[in-house]
Records
---
Amino acid sequence: MSRSQDDAPAPRPWTRLGSRHGASLVLFRPRWDRLVNPRTSEEFERLVLETPDWVNVVALTADGELLCVEQYRFGSGTVTVEIPGGVLDRGEEHGAAARRELLEETGHTSERWRYLGAVEPNPAFQDNLCHHWLAEGCIRTHALGLDPGEDIAVRTLPVADVVSAVGSGRIRHSLVISALSRVLDLRLPE
Amino acid sequence: MSRSQDDAPAPRPWTRLGSRHGASLVLFRPRWDRLVNPRTSEEFERLVLETPDWVNVVALTADGELLCVEQYRFGSGTVTVEIPGGVLDRGEEHGAAARRELLEETGHTSERWRYLGAVEPNPAFQDNLCHHWLAEGCIRTHALGLDPGEDIAVRTLPVADVVSAVGSGRIRHSLVISALSRVLDLRLPE
């Protein structure tokens, strides 16, 4: 399907000679791999952050509005607007995790679920996937049960406002945008 | 623009009481922040991976095909299809970095550049942005100068194939998809 430039050969997987783990970073387990570049036969050490798979949910209400979650994020140091999502529990299937995260973070449930596929949050140094799900006709069935380490507000956004919020940068988590792009046309105006 | 559920107050920024850094992870500098949740006044420690901003480029040839980069990625352990991109050098402006990465990774240059905005790779634990750029009418002007730690092949993909490659998962780096979504309609078929 693709045309090569210069007929360059397709890059091959590198050979892993060995690995060592670093101290856990709670969210991640650092791993240093010793690898050989097959193009040059030279050895390199590269970092991988081992982490479980993630999931997030494009959740639409019966009115067709998007369920959003506002929370303070420690990396950006800002209050962000995102869609519900989180980390898979050990042994949990990603569809179950999607239902659990939607319920925990928004108090909503849905009977109409569709799998939107998976992306790599960052294949350069993370070994995990983020699974995207669509939940339609969501209704509020439970109260929010926030733990002491959480401070979340649930909002609904008309779909037209979602597109403009992505364009303006008000919504700017890359994994949120990746999920939304499977349901909404996010192209910027020419 | 958004409607609140339960009139929940907007979450406020957490107060940072202090920070300590961990050993460098080359790509990242781990930082542990001691924070207070304003909703509960309880204290928590949270990890941030400090990292420079990134950039990537939706680069179209004069024929309107997308320039792609194939390379082995250490996190996923696979050969991926991505768009050119990388880390800003210290003090480098992101527009200059976009031009540099396009040239280094594909040997192409362009005279038609458009800024597509920035996203947060992951605001939960990273403090950086990824800037998206569009380069149109790209032409091959230089040879590839790969260093010993690189093994990259440059490909061109018709735009219709790009959309199907995202849908099929052949292209699945979230930051690549985020950039592409500003130029292409990536919605899945109903």
---
Amino acid sequence: MKTADLQPHLDTLAPQFQQDLMEWLRIASISSDPSCMRQTSEAADWIANHLRRGGLEVQRIETQGHPLVFAQSPPIPGRPVVLVYGHYDVQPVEPLEQWISGPFEPTIRDGNIYARGATDDKGQVLTHVESLLTLIEAGVRLPIQVKFLIEGEEEVGSANLERLLPSLAKQLDCDVVVISDSSQYDVGQPAITYGLRGIATFELRLDGPRQDLHSGSFGGAVTNPAVALCQMLAAAIGRDGRVQIPGFYDGCRELTEIERRRLAELPYSDAEFARSIGVDALGGDQRYGALERRWTRPTFEINGLTSGHQGEGGKTIIPATASAKISCRLVPDQDPEKVVAAAEAFFHAQTPPGIRLHFKRGHAAPGMLSRLDSPYIAAAQRAIESAFGKQPVMIREGGSIPIVTRFQEVLGADCLLLGWGLSDDNAHSPNEKFCLADFHRGIAASAQLFMELGSLNHHRAGHG
Amino acid sequence: MKTADLQPHLDTLAPQFQQDLMEWLRIASISSDPSCMRQTSEAADWIANHLRRGGLEVQRIETQGHPLVFAQSPPIPGRPVVLVYGHYDVQPVEPLEQWISGPFEPTIRDGNIYARGATDDKGQVLTHVESLLTLIEAGVRLPIQVKFLIEGEEEVGSANLERLLPSLAKQLDCDVVVISDSSQYDVGQPAITYGLRGIATFELRLDGPRQDLHSGSFGGAVTNPAVALCQMLAAAIGRDGRVQIPGFYDGCRELTEIERRRLAELPYSDAEFARSIGVDALGGDQRYGALERRWTRPTFEINGLTSGHQGEGGKTIIPATASAKISCRLVPDQDPEKVVAAAEAFFHAQTPPGIRLHFKRGHAAPGMLSRLDSPYIAAAQRAIESAFGKQPVMIREGGSIPIVTRFQEVLGADCLLLGWGLSDDNAHSPNEKFCLADFHRGIAASAQLFMELGSLNHHRAGHG
């Protein structure tokens, strides 16, 4: 069955899809807000009940926080199992006064639906639910088993899901995980994200004198922790943007020729990117192009610096302490543990006399890279092209989605990141939106994907 | 007249001196606290009335803030004029719960008087008032004219006095300014401070992207302002403690042989100093000894660093901005304006593409150095030796007292910094104290100084 055959059904149901989405969006499921406990639970129940309409087996899995919603269609022996992952929780809505229409009063303007959660992630995950329900209602014999895992704590770090994942491994067993929680490359240019960067975070705290000292009476004889911190961090990252920590780049996988060519073909302008973020020149290691640097090269970024006097005016002290928060983005096949260990050793070696370094490890996750030649990607390409009328470009993403690498590790499954959103959708900001045409194209692409995957074999089908 | 002749008078009056001090200390003259307005004014009136008891001409000079108290004895033609400068305002008293006895309930324990302002500066400036009143009461014919300028805003920056100084120049005209608002070198070792460091402060603010950016999606292609700040500051100050800004050291006056010898003779231990501030090693330019570095060499200190995420946890951003507060201590004959201009030029040259530097100048004041061979110093040495029973050591101080350099500039007068306090007097901290024996020795030394100065000639007497 092709989308073309399903299209009349989808067209007929389009108003209903929109109504469903608006209903879900009206529920203020802000996972970080204790006053939204009832609504967050209600949003879980809404999608659970919606999934039940298709006759799926649905389960509400309680956690120490917000519940998980799990659903599955019947298994199809010998055919692939797809797990759709998404989340029903949303970001806070402040500053409220900047919203044109209320964050939980979904409103359509210029072909977009405006509401908190429209693109992140209710609107996007719903495409897969609606597509499956439509296939079932249309009497199509499902060629694969589809599972859903829709959680309520993605916006607060997914800690409970991460904790439960090993115990859920059997239930979630699948060949491929499909996630729609990201963006197309540009307006009118769909994309498949086949790579993510990993992450390693840590903090440096440098302790010097017992307490802040008078910079006049003591200055000159005391190692200033803030000065030492600047010197140590400057030693870690060169003016050319290259990280100077020995071993930092160990294992970094270089781009393949195909990747390099595809990347070069993407419409992209340094000048436009610089303008969009408000700078007059880009930074980083100039041996690599800017997209390459953002997607495929590791980074060492200072996320925060704190020492001594904050706020207005002066205070002539030698601060007792200085600290920095660091996050490194990693690429396949850097080993996060080794990177952190290398950084720790480097900074200890760099610590001058008179300073005590406290190195505090944060979280770490490796980068993710799907095989460009995987049959799942090929199926997704066909599905997207048929629904969007344009071949998707293959992109990577500089950010990290720790749960994706956890899925890979625990479930041993490939991940397909199929973003239907746009980069200006204001996820996490006021006036979050989702293009309704993309919502409907997403449903069509999802339906087509489920059908396409039916032609593949079960379990690591294409990995032979 | 020698102190010996005056001593019986001083001994008789000692209980009265102590009572006077306690009375003054009971007045909560916290200049920074608007709720202490009445008490601050009352403290000014208390010392004004006290000075009137000696028959001095006393004037309360109103300012935009707290009043100045001015007093003078009759002029003695051909003899020096001494201006005693001090302050009647005190620091705040928080944390109150750490005081053993109330900050404004002066209490004597172990030979010390405990109260806010005991050493800083009511107890110290009162020594000169009591000595003059005693000389007058004893019927001694004053060999010099003594003027007093006692202000109420020293603890909040002396801005009003600085502003009024030029218009008061004639009234304050003098040969030498005497200030007792500092410390002896050690217990039982009095000192004369003959040099102060100057100061130059400024702030760097580095602006990068328009707003904080996601360190994953953007990291690698954007110059991180926090990284740039560390690199620029690390470029400014070498690992060897030497400032790398071209021109920074221009004009620095080196120690004379006499100074170097006297400095080397001072009892001092690096290990003990390190222990006292809680570090295991000292810092700074190792070509100079630690006391030399603290007193006689310029510094470049970071007083504060601020960028991106503060507080607990992580936030994976490229911060939009990063800033540093800097204070440099300067020595004679560095030119503060030139130092700041050199720093501004250096940091502009160091600013990488993609970053906009905002350089904000703060305040600046040159260092001060009295001639070791001045007749005023010789007189003070004799006076202190006679009252304390030990020859004072000649020391310099790493801090800056901008009003002292302003006195030198506006009045053209030498300054004698005669500290009767001790470094553990807890000025600015709970349980401020002043050793009563030093209070009485200070009165004796002051009386002796006034007599000694009578043997000198008026106006730049020793500068011929």
---
Amino acid sequence: MFFHKQELQYKASPAKPDVLQARRMQELLGGQYGEITVAMQYMFQGWNIHVPGKYRDMIFGIGAEEVGHVEMLAVMIAQLLEKAPVEQAEDAISRDPAVAAVIGGMDVQHAIVAGAGARPVDSMGNPWSGSYVTASGNLLADFHANAAAEMQGRVQATRVFHATDDKGVRDLLSFMIARDTMHQNQWLAAAAELQAEGHEELPVPSNFPQRLEDSSVAHQYQNFSDGQQAREGSWASGPAPDGKGQFSYTDGPQDHGVVPLPPPTTPDPRFYGTTGKPNLVEKVVGTVKDAL
Amino acid sequence: MFFHKQELQYKASPAKPDVLQARRMQELLGGQYGEITVAMQYMFQGWNIHVPGKYRDMIFGIGAEEVGHVEMLAVMIAQLLEKAPVEQAEDAISRDPAVAAVIGGMDVQHAIVAGAGARPVDSMGNPWSGSYVTASGNLLADFHANAAAEMQGRVQATRVFHATDDKGVRDLLSFMIARDTMHQNQWLAAAAELQAEGHEELPVPSNFPQRLEDSSVAHQYQNFSDGQQAREGSWASGPAPDGKGQFSYTDGPQDHGVVPLPPPTTPDPRFYGTTGKPNLVEKVVGTVKDAL
Amino acid sequence: MFFHKQELQYKASPAKPDVLQARRMQELLGGQYGEITVAMQYMFQGWNIHVPGKYRDMIFGIGAEEVGHVEMLAVMIAQLLEKAPVEQAEDAISRDPAVAAVIGGMDVQHAIVAGAGARPVDSMGNPWSGSYVTASGNLLADFHANAAAEMQGRVQATRVFHATDDKGVRDLLSFMIARDTMHQNQWLAAAAELQAEGHEELPVPSNFPQRLEDSSVAHQYQNFSDGQQAREGSWASGPAPDGKGQFSYTDGPQDHGVVPLPPPTTPDPRFYGTTGKPNLVEKVVGTVKDAL
Amino acid sequence: MFFHKQELQYKASPAKPDVLQARRMQELLGGQYGEITVAMQYMFQGWNIHVPGKYRDMIFGIGAEEVGHVEMLAVMIAQLLEKAPVEQAEDAISRDPAVAAVIGGMDVQHAIVAGAGARPVDSMGNPWSGSYVTASGNLLADFHANAAAEMQGRVQATRVFHATDDKGVRDLLSFMIARDTMHQNQWLAAAAELQAEGHEELPVPSNFPQRLEDSSVAHQYQNFSDGQQAREGSWASGPAPDGKGQFSYTDGPQDHGVVPLPPPTTPDPRFYGTTGKPNLVEKVVGTVKDAL
Amino acid sequence: MFFHKQELQYKASPAKPDVLQARRMQELLGGQYGEITVAMQYMFQGWNIHVPGKYRDMIFGIGAEEVGHVEMLAVMIAQLLEKAPVEQAEDAISRDPAVAAVIGGMDVQHAIVAGAGARPVDSMGNPWSGSYVTASGNLLADFHANAAAEMQGRVQATRVFHATDDKGVRDLLSFMIARDTMHQNQWLAAAAELQAEGHEELPVPSNFPQRLEDSSVAHQYQNFSDGQQAREGSWASGPAPDGKGQFSYTDGPQDHGVVPLPPPTTPDPRFYGTTGKPNLVEKVVGTVKDAL
Amino acid sequence: MFFHKQELQYKASPAKPDVLQARRMQELLGGQYGEITVAMQYMFQGWNIHVPGKYRDMIFGIGAEEVGHVEMLAVMIAQLLEKAPVEQAEDAISRDPAVAAVIGGMDVQHAIVAGAGARPVDSMGNPWSGSYVTASGNLLADFHANAAAEMQGRVQATRVFHATDDKGVRDLLSFMIARDTMHQNQWLAAAAELQAEGHEELPVPSNFPQRLEDSSVAHQYQNFSDGQQAREGSWASGPAPDGKGQFSYTDGPQDHGVVPLPPPTTPDPRFYGTTGKPNLVEKVVGTVKDAL
């Protein structure tokens, strides 16, 4: 169960309205790596988890926090939109480039659809999508995805931070960027702990029997480009991070197969695909088959 | 530039057709973590990169390989579909549960739309989406995303592996799972190397000035759930992975703010939102404003 | 069957071109509650209806009107775009904020994709989606959805009305807002009539046997927030609108269940999920299972 | 802020696993009118609200409950999936139609992507979309949308109820259907109260100045179909629900306009659209313009 | 304006219900090349057209017909769904593979969402999308797109035809396939006429000044694959269809450029991208810039 | 397999950065008819093809070229974004309309998400979708779709060409427009050759037995609009392009059917749809059925 408390985790009031910044904040709220994504992602991981204990507790502990982050952003956006223009005052536009920027750059649906409120969309107006969520049931894979999501989220938040000098907005972002720092660290620590406790190793999933994969290419860099510097990297020689092999380098892949020739039996003519024979033949076959 | 060679990186021929397995393979081809995703992701990272040298070479080297993986899967799927049923033969269905499973479980568009061919969709028929791609310009954030993507991809491939006992399909998957092993290792090695060379540190992005974030909460676990075991984890005490702080634990967040009261100036009445006053007042105001 | 008549239900000519207003009008044409939505929604309700007579006639009568509304908006938008800028004349931009607003704010695809024409998208460029449509087969549920859609649509149209002072655009919107008034009334009247004639009651669907739902919570407000004023509302005491119970209030839900512990039988190890046991055990199990 | 409590609002354990029912339950979790939709919808309405007091408290009180409903469904689905088939055991399929139904009808991503867990998608695998959410800032419009959503949701839940005879699943649905009953009533009561207190009237938005809409058609049924029974309805004569006019009926719309002829000034030739003149003329014009 | 007549263009009644065929018919109704697509496509082309006369009349003449085709399919689908199973009768499934096929293969939302009715989706449940529509303002380009759409549509309809032997369904498809034949011919004829009358030539758009394109490669086949037979085609030598050049063949493209090296001025450090320099340098720069 | 060469097919360097043009170029990269679409479309056609030889070679030859076009556009866009504004410098905006245009018109995610890099989206920010791809297995249908795609693509590129006077951008577009010219010609030539060699005829698919379609309407123009000029076109009389019939014209369709009345057996009451009988009857029936 979830309970709501009518306080925010951190104050979320801008110094003054700014509809352009409101639009940018939508990325942090409803973008691919926005707060809805991490909230949903952690909650689905928690609901699908098969084990009790500290990992499960931690997932719910952070999941609920993230819903509150959505709230802080939404509350902030609504205030940034307080002066969202209702009309396109041509005089004002003609006189003032700042007005022109607002008229040109605002999220049009902030005004028409939400009446100066936040929306579950990103900064370009794409609705948030369930396809952003990652919850595989394999905790090590998922914790890495979580760490990666927090990194992308923090990168985006720092960019949005610099886009404004509003004291209130920067203050909130200063708090949220710090939480991203924490969560980035948190998932990296949890991923390390999972491995230390023997729940999972690299490569993920580690309990797929090794004999079932083609070990001859499991640690081999195959270069499909004409650049020559890739062989200088630590991924081209030396021990691999999973501790299960030595990296090697091969310049160009070994040929293993060919595009198969068309199979001896042609596809069913009733698919009406092109099969390389003048269609007269097929027409007869088709007509006959159909008549049966 | 990209060049095509009419050979496959690995042979891709099933022992026999299997339209249900064809559908499952679509997840590896066109799903959130399928081969189209990683191909596109690495290529966009390469096109947006600002630095020459080994990282850039490596990104293109693997990016081109992944396009070839899309090809192997597509070629395999087309062959698995060779006996895709054109008709719903009621007699056959009534007699044979295996036919019933095929009629019930096949990707309907494999037959109707593609004429027994592969499609750029996942196993539930969702078209591949550009929103799956991550390319932020920050290589450490992106390499972590890449490693996470390879982990999810490998987990999915192992599940699809067990769904069939077709020798040809398992053979291809055995090769592809090994490549996932390599690529998982590759990105982890590259991420480590980026840090070792001082390009980037944790937390990402590391050159966001630390004084601009609220350091009081940057390493603090805040528990928003009623579980008590989360404090036992390595994320609740001890040094954080970024080496820049000690984890701490707090049971319940400190209150920092409140949901702001409605601002003294009400929104423009021409948004026709609800403002808490009987609308008679607004109607007068609106009419007057409008008349001006 | 549908027939087209080369007249519009109402004149649709702007006083002068305005590419920014063209973009706003797209919301009314192709947005979540735009005219395509209601046209499609009413038509699908009509096609799926199981009963002849006045409701069915009425649904088709309004459905066809709404296709004509799409037409009026499209014709208007094409004219508003007549002066859509082909080039980004830097001189003009530098001199004139109004030009800057246009360059910044226009729907880029209006120019590049449609060559100064309307598109089946909303004001942020999201393509219209079949997922906006509601047609459940239960007419009372659907008529309420229709009334709600007309309300949202009218709210949006009034906002778009104020965004321009173009006489021609306002004239068309004045007509369309009046039609929204009619249709809002129409669906509310139809919903009332359905109930008066005994086809359906509240709660919808009314013929789900009452004994099959948990009547102990069917009229009980459960407060999951810490606000205390919700108990003052008419939804917290007194008779409920469905006439089948008295509202009651409870501050905090009664606990009925717990998150289930992991089931005694662990999931199939071949899902490679995390199961709380060091994976060595599983690896053995998996290898053995696989070998069989 | 949101807090999580590790109990469920109601017990959510099936009598036995059933992957087909798991798929159906996804509609109630992640469909257009599933629990994610209402949770998000109410929360966004709450975050965008401009007024303190009972409406706002109520919105948060129910919003948090709905997040808990997502949880109950997710937990239930994960248990229903416990025996999700990892392999396509041909022998078993060939012998048993029930196995064939499962192989054919399961959500393929439940196995491959989630490892036997719930996902933020509907029963056909479409990811949940932010475009399902309605939050306009006009509470009367939004409360009607909420009531309509609860009706659709309840209709769907009753259908899913009959699809199974699992005691545990029916038990949970019996609880959730009752909550839908409550919430349907709740929003209807709240909508009535908003009007009774004078915040808003019909038609929504009521404070759009009536003189700005074309009152001649604001209560007129216009029949665009050839059915003749629509005039028998209460929407074709008598007083309208908004109390502001009498319904009237007209058989066929009055012609108000025509599709405008092509404007005297042709579009910019650099759009390369078709303009009705042989393109030689344009080519010359274009070349000249371009040369300047 | 559009008017509805309560007759169908052709009878649409199946011999008996068939929920699997209902799902297949959804592709023809709501797929990428289904009837909603062509209806919308032709209507948008008509609304955006700049010229009066026969082309415009024809576009509206066929556009309205296509809306009627959506209707015929929807009416057919609703009847095919008449026996859609409400419950998952385990006994019946266990005994009868045909029931298993239905339970496994039906569109789950046909039952849960539409209550045995048609939906604006394709055969895999993807909602119809406005992104399927093509209307560029250039009639020759659009007529080619229309002809191509009718071809895809007819191919799909013939495949769906063979999937059933229901006399009623085949009868309707027999009619619709014939209309596809007509419309395929119609658009090809119209495209030829546009050229014959000098409105447009190949390549489209023909009035783009030829001197503005790089004529050295405008008729040159460049082979980016290692196949050698492509040079045998009529696209590799001889006159091109546009009558404006001779095809030539080149085995491998000429190198024209290189991937640009990183520009001398690095991107703004406040994007926190990776720039190839250890981040210490940037951190100083960033801190200084930020401090200013 | 695909190989990458670190050169571009053509130089792709702008004279100077221009974030607005960067956004327009996204349409050519990631739009419905952008380079990702044609690259994917040709590759899927190649992977699904059933015949070896010149067509297959040609498809791969052009498919690989198109991936390189994506690359050229991405590289160009990244350079156009080099000066993408990090901050919203209010002073600069207030002074300079050109800055206002940039702030208003840029793709917000170019800055926040990609850190001044290209993205797999169109000019309005919609992510590229697999639903743009056409690959039916019928080569004549597909080659027509390819020609149509190249026409739309060339129309769009010419529009984007005029939007800038940047020498470098125009230079690249001049090259790409010429390649569009080639590819438009190429697919038209290939379509003609397929027919000349007897693989396929019009109407597509030509081997669908003609006796299975309703030949009475296969070449008949049916006018569903009130325009009278459509009968003047070549599609209303004379020989049809498929050489299999004479066009005819009929003013208004012949009535073939009617909307079916509700079937004698009502739908299962457990769908809780509206069936035209007061629900009391159903309620009894439902209760009884349920009790059994």
